[in-house]
Amino acid sequence: MLAFSLCSLHIPIAHKTQTPLKKSMFLKSQIHSTLPLIRGNTSKFKLFTALSPSPLTESSSSNLEVDDEPEVETGSEKFDWYSQWYPLMPICDLDKRAPHAKKVMGIDVVIWWDRNESAWQVFDDACPHRLAPLSEGRIDQWGRLQCVYHGWCFNGSGDCKFIPQAPPEGPPIHTSKKACVAAYPSTVQNDILWFWPNTDPQYKDIITRKTPPFIPEIDDPSFTSFMGNRDIPYGYEVLVENLMDPSHVPYAHYGLTPDPKGNNADREGGTPLDFSVEELDINGFTANQGWNKSKFMPPSIFYLYSEPDKLASSVETKKSSVQKKFSMIFICIPVSPGKSRLIWCFPRNFGVWADKIVPRWILHMGQNLILDSDLYLLHVEVILFIIYRSVIPLIK
User: Fold this and answer.
1) In the structure, how many helices (H) and strands (E) does the chain have?
2) pLDDT of 291-343, one tens digit each?
3) CA–CA distance from 232 to each of 40, 196, 208, 323, 328 (Å)?
4) What is the pTM for the complete model shown?
5) Which residue range(s) make up the domain with 384?
6) Measuring CA to CA, how many Å separate 178 from each of 127, 128, 132, 173?
7) How are beta strands 327-336 and 339-345 bridged, if at all?
8) Which of 152, 269, 324, 366 could form a disulfide with 147 if both were Cys (CB 3.0 to 4.6 A apart)?
9) What is the pLDDT of residue 307?
């Protein structure tokens, strides 16, 4: 399936004007010389802005029918990594009975289900009292997030509603702003929980001004919508580049992908690549590879889709009044230097019955076999690259 991918594009972007920042643990990656250094300073609110934007920037696809077009930058070569929606997890992999710890862009957050608001909430994963991880806590009988250390309880807005140690007849110390936990804007779209990595109150209603990229196939009931996710022990930039590289597929995934046909020059089926970039700007890229097209929507979504008339043979097409459509969606999440997370979804409008009877764990096994066949290779390549970058300058 990964044969739908196309080569990685790296476009250097201009420097971003600064605003006050909170110190971020998402430091400069040592993997790729074109990646930015992301750092920050402290401020009253947790406001994150990338100092240097990413080199991965390009445009959009006419095939992707977007109902609510996300707000995008135009006429600019600046990309602010911290002014974007980031996916956290598929909803199907979240348990409403307990909080979950996740990290994105070096930011530790806790995800929990607020039954009082019927919504998923995303907080800083640190209790304001003693900085204990709230993800180790629990949901109390009133549907509040309770800290595991001293039992402080918080509502969906991050307000402290109860401090067990405070005398009931004393001053309401739980109402102090210092007792509140920072809450991030969040939303559910395409069955995925997204968050905006900025707790400044000015971004509380950011969803009304800018939305995550929308992929209609995921919400279309006529398509399958199986999703999977996995944490990857190599960096975001390596993950994205690997997914966009089709030339490694017949070799690294030998025996896991369909056997090539009609190539006498090479047993595995390696061939010259023929593709063209149709659009390329700060908002991503659209490319044509002949038998499939692709779209990158920074910072997270790499979207590939087959052309309906080329997916099935002419005989099969005549037998069905419905055009067969298939797409591959890879959602790449920067976790921290040397770590990333991948959410994948392969919507199709044919053979839908199969996903209704095949257990999800079997589909997980197939995709993880492909990821595993890349894992060791990329690990070795990254280690050797770091050594090369570190040792060669000393020799010179």
Assistant:
1) 7, 18
2) 678 899 999 999 887 765 444 444 444 455 567 888 889 999 999 998 999 99
3) 25, 22, 32, 35, 19
4) 0.73
5) 220-260+272-307+323-394
6) 11, 7, 15, 9
7) antiparallel
8) 152
9) 61
